[in-house]
């Protein structure tokens, strides 16, 4: 039987041995990460087939000990992980991270504060509230505390859509006592299920649909509007959709605008959308999970004009803000709208505490136990200063424009959408290559380069066309880096094109 001393040693606590083990193992972990960073390869885990053979969980009664386990994790996990800072890692909105974010994580993890009540995060609660206030001012909402850190864009979007629905139903339905209907208490009125709608562009993030399905409204409650050639919502089509829905007896609870669509980086025209939403008394939620980084921009802040007109907004710091996962926020313009999700748990947020101004963050969040992710952003802003931070964000926007020009000027590469923010949708089209094989070729080029650890390029669709995607948000990537990558893409296409055309090609993923 393990004894009490062993428990103390294993637990992270004030035991002298526990502290000594923590210091030495953390030192080793940091050493291992540093060695991993110095390996120039983007990825060394191989294809999914190769990797699957090696990954095996090995629980035992005795345990292998911390040292052996750490060595094993370095081999099994660290050395087989994608390097997100590598200039060829640009498939997703998956960012390299700040040193400050790494340091803050050590403090966040070690203290394990939880944001659901003040007594579980005394300093942290007060810090988060101040950061929310600062973010509100950056967005243009004005001072206040209505908002909360979240696990990311999906959760922030859920909060916006949920509050919009419940506000809409409270406005348009009465309960048996003639009072505004409370969805929180009474559920969704049966005729609201078919009549309450949510409108967004066809390029809005899929979490809009997914969230509404979870909210019991189904995908059927989402009405999508076509986009223009810049991948932004077509406002004439939006106006028509709104009019048609009204004529059909539907009530639009919310228009979801996107500031930075996940693929094209398109920013919907926010002022025009606000005008249309006002004509129908609809909530406007802006999903700025990606484009929201421009609130710190030195040069491109104007691209977000109109953000302040929204009723709620989604921000994501684990994208173009270079924070470690998870780190996001939800901001609500009018604090009164939080009433639709207020819940009093005597042990967490008593009326007594609220009377005395004790921060009550559990009422503002869908989560109960919650990480103090706000520390990462706080520390980064304070340490770097807004100017350096802003210029790191701006770098990606500029780089993207240069990359697009380069693609346009290069034979064998085709730009599919004019970039607006920090992503490039393009494809490789070798001269004289049969059109029917071009889609497959692009998919296979991306898979090959990943399996060989050379590059992580995204694969998506633009209309019906198979597209490659580069998210060029890295503050340390150069045009030369991207040019080298594009040369790899073209060389790889040349290498495999003939074997695809004659049917002898085996993709690395198969
Ligand atoms: C990434 C993204 C989301 C989802 O955010 P998560 O943090 O991944 O949950 C939502 N909307 C947009 C526009 C995004 O780019």
Automatic annotation (TrEMBL):
Mind listing the GO molecular function terms for this protein? transaminase activity
Keywords (alphabetical) are:
Aminotransferase, Decarboxylase, Lyase, Pyridoxal phosphate, Transferase
Q: Which cofactor does it need?
A: pyridoxal 5'-phosphate
Check the record and name the InterPro entries matching this protein.
Answer: PyrdxlP-dep_de-COase (IPR002129), PyrdxlP-dep_Trfase (IPR015424), PyrdxlP-dep_Trfase_major (IPR015421), Pyridoxal-P_BS (IPR021115)
Top-level taxon of origin: Bacteria
Q: Return the similarity comment.
A: Belongs to the group II decarboxylase family.
Q: What is this protein called?
A: Aspartate aminotransferase family protein
């Amino acid at each position: 039987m393990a004894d009490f001393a062993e428990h103390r040693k294993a637990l992270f606590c004030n035991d002298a041995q526990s502290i000594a083990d923590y210091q030495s193992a953390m030192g080793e972990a940091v050493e291992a990460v540093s060695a991993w960073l110095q390996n120039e390869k983007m990825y060394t885990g191989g294809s999914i087939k190769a990797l699957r053979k090696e990954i095996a969980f090995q629980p035992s009664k005795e345990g292998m000990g911390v040292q052996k386990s750490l060595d094993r994790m370095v081999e099994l996990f660290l050395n087989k992980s994608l390097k997100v800072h590598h200039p060829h890692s640009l498939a997703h909105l998956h960012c390299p991270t700040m040193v400050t974010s790494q340091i803050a994580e050590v403090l966040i993890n070690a203290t394990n504060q939880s944001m659901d009540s003040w007594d579980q995060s005394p300093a942290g609660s007060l810090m988060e509230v101040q950061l929310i206030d600062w973010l509100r001012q950056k967005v243009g909402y004005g001072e206040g505390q209505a908002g909360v850190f979240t696990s990311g864009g999906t959760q922030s979007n859920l909060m916006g859509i949920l509050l919009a629905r419940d506000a809409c139903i409270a406005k348009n339905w009465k309960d048996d006592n003639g009072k505004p209907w409370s969805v929180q208490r009474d559920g969704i009125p049966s005729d609201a299920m078919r009549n309450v709608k949510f409108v967004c562009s066809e390029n809005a993030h899929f979490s809009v649909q997914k969230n509404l399905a979870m909210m019991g409204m189904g995908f059927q409650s989402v009405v999508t509007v076509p986009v223009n050639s810049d991948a932004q919502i077509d406002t004439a089509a939006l106006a028509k959709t709104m009019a048609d829905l009204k004529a059909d007896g539907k009530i639009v609870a919310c228009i979801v605008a996107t500031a930075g669509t996940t693929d094209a980086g398109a920013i919907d025209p926010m002022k025009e959308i606000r005008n249309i939403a006002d004509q129908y008394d609809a909530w406007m939620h802006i999903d700025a999970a990606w484009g929201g980084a421009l609130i710190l921009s030195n040069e491109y802040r104007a691209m977000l004009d109109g953000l302040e007109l929204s009723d709620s907004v989604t921000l994501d710091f684990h994208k173009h803000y270079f924070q470690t996962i998870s780190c996001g926020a939800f901001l609500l313009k009018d604090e009164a709208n939080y009433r639709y999700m207020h819940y009093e748990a005597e042990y967490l947020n008593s009326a007594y505490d609220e009377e005395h101004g004790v921060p009550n963050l559990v009422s503002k969040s869908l989560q109960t136990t919650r990480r103090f992710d706000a520390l990462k952003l706080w520390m980064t802003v304070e340490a770097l200063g807004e100017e350096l931070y802003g210029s790191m964000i701006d770098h990606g926007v500029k780089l993207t424009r240069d990359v697009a020009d380069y693609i346009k000027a290069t034979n064998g590469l085709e730009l599919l959408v004019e970039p607006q923010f920090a992503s490039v949708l393009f494809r490789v089209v070798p001269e004289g290559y049969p059109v029917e094989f071009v889609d497959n070729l692009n998919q296979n080029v991306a898979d090959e380069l990943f399996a060989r650890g050379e590059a992580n390029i995204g694969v998506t669709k633009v209309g019906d066309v198979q597209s490659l995607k580069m998210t060029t948000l890295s503050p340390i990537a150069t045009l030369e880096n991207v040019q080298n990558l594009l040369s790899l893409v073209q060389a790889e296409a040349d290498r495999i094109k003939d074997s695809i055309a004659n049917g002898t090609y085996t993709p690395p993923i198969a």
